[in-house]
Amino acid sequence: MTIWKNFPETIPRPAYRSLADLISDAIDNGDLRVGERLPTHRELAYQLDLSVQTISRAYDELIRRGLIEGQVGRGTFVSSGPAKSNWPFVPAGQDGQLVDLSILKPVTAPVHRERMSAAFAELSDTLADTSIFSFKPSNALQPFKRAALAWLARCGLSCAPDSIIMTNGATPAMTTALMTAANAGELVLTEAMCHHTLIPLARYMDLRLEGIPLDHEGIVPDELEKICRSKPVKSLYVMPSGLNPLARMMGSDRREALAALARKYDFTIIENDAWGPIQPDRPPPIAAFAPERTFYFTSFTKCLFPGLRHGYLVVPELLASAAANRHLVTDWVATPIMAEIASLFIENGTADELLSWQKAALGRRNAMVAKILDGIPFGASPNGMHIWLPLPGSWTEEAFVANARQKGVAVAPGSAFAISDTTANHSVRICLGGIQEEALARGVQLIARLYKSPPEPALLAF
Ligand SMILES: Cc1ncc(COP(=O)(O)O)c(C=O)c1O
Question: 90 partner at 20 to 30 Å CA-CA among 149, 255, 273, 439?
């Protein structure tokens, strides 16, 4: 077993964690394979000149991470393969000709460039000194709180100005919320098929992530309660409006039920509302039912403008300082010039205009795709930016994605969103924005033909 040869003579303390990391890396890079037996505690302690207790703690840590398992009377075995790095979208620069339905982007048109140019023109005269010369959040961003409150009110949330942290989009908001809500080793629950960046983020933060079974409205409260009864839950990460990747909408009663469970079992909620604004009729956010324990965030990149990396994180009052400190050390301050543009858009009506435009564009695209897929069952949410296509039993996800790709269309495999192999859903996610309508139609027509064809492995020779 090569990893023991690579074990350094001195390792950073605590030794158990360094050993666990080393074994975890060996699993990731394939030096240790699923099913391989690890040395006994005593054997390894002897080989590495460490105490048996240190080896036991390292193995316990790896069991906790779900990477190895002990089998009574047989020993300890690698139980999980390399960490998945299969991002659902196609990396930049690959396949210039591809109809890329793998990436989530809003629809864009010349109107977006026109509105951005107008904002630049206006701001070139009026840009505040604080937006160019200051990087202290209280100085640079205070003037934009009014716009933030107005936008959050459109999202169904009224809150105190001090509970808002402005962020460079949803991603830093999510990191800040998770850092505030849970510590290493604690349990965070989420949808069994979830927003994919949560999976590596939880791994980097050493959080335990567990998926909750879903129905047509997302998280099933009874399933959540079953878990809460059996072990301490620190936080629940949830995307009630347009769930990525399943495209489901949670109704108002369900939102209220989750808020009630959070109170009963004393956990916090992290609510991702990155797409909420594009829904035609949306129930109030969960944060409106449990503001004292919900971290709520939304951003502009998905519902208005891909390049407008700006968002709002609303935090529970008693955790406002803790969250602000965590945001400071990870991102310091949202870029003030972005805050200028977003606030100008909100206050001069451009944000409402572009939101209505986006809703109409996505509404049209959803209708067009439903027509092309006529007779094929698939999941969608109102004005959703993507659909979810369960595959016929005969196709594997891998073969379907590879065949589509070979024919010039990229779609994301469902497995990229699964918390564990057992939650995989045998489906693909198809995004509707980001490309021209005509290319989308071509891509979905090809997907429909492939769906109806007998499965074939992708051709290897071309
Ligand atoms: C569910 C969800 N939330 C948030 C984001 C990222 O948002 P932002 O670009 O504002 O960081 C994504 C990106 O695809 C997403 O799928």
Answer: 273
Report the pLDDT value the prediction gives residue 24, as an integer from 0 to 100.
82
Answer yes or no: is 48 within a domain: yes
Quick check: helix, strand or coil at residue 165?
strand
315 and 381 assigned to the same domain: no
Note whether 166 and 282 are same-domain residues: yes
CATH assignment of the domain containing 33:
1.10.10.10
pLDDT tens-place string over residues 390-404: 999 889 898 999 999
**CB 323, CB 165: distance < 8 Å:** yes
CATH code of residue 146: 3.40.640.10
Number of domains in the chain: 3
121 CA from centroid of ligand 1 (Å)? 29
Q: Same domain for 13 and 144? A: no
**Of 168, 295, 301, 303, which is best to mutate to test ligand 1, by the most ligand atoms within 8 angstroms of its C-beta?**
301
Best of 89, 195, 241 for a ligand 1 pocket test (most atoms within 8 Å of beta carbon)? 195
Residue nearest to atom 7 of ligand 1 (CA): 170
- Cis omega before residue 457 (within 30°)? no
Query: Are both 63 and 204 inside the same structural domain?
Result: no
- Counting from 1 in the atom list of ligand 1, the atom nearest the Cα of 306 is 9
For the Cβ of 169 lying below 6 angstroms from any atom of ligand 1, the answer is: yes
Residue 123: inside a domain = no
CATH of the domain at 433: 3.90.1150.10
Counting from 1 in the atom list of ligand 1, the atom nearest the Cα of 196 is 16
Residues 345 and 439 in one domain: no
Structure tokens that stand for 219 in this block: 């998280």
Instruction: For residue 14, say if its preceding peptide bond is cis, omega within 30 degrees of 0.
Output: yes
pLDDT for the residue numbered 340: 96
User: 183 with 149, same domain?
Assistant: yes
pLDDT in tens, 201-236: 999 999 999 999 999 999 999 999 999 999 999 999
- Ligand 1 centroid to residue 302 C-alpha, Å: 7
Q: Are residues 290 and 432 in the same domain?
A: no
Query: Which parts of the chain sit beneath pLDDT 50?
Result: 85, 461-462
**What is the span of the domain harbouring residue 189?**
129-351
Query: Do 361 and 262 belong to one domain?
Result: no
pLDDT value at residue 462 = 44
Nearest in space to 288 (alpha carbons), one of 153, 154, 156, 148: 156
Q: Looking at residue 424, what is its pLDDT?
A: 60
For residue 235 and ligand 1, the question of a CB distance below 6 A is answered with no
Judge whether 370 and 357 are in contact, CB under 8 Å.
no
Nearest CA to ligand 1 atom 3: 274
Ligand 1 site, residue 104, Cβ cutoff 6 A: yes
The answer to whether the CB of 168 is under 6 A from ligand 1 is no
* Centre of ligand 1 from the C-alpha of residue 254, in Å: 23
The dihedrals phi and psi of 322, each to the nearest 5 degrees, come to -60, -45
The span from the first CA to the last CA of the chain, in angstroms, equals: 38
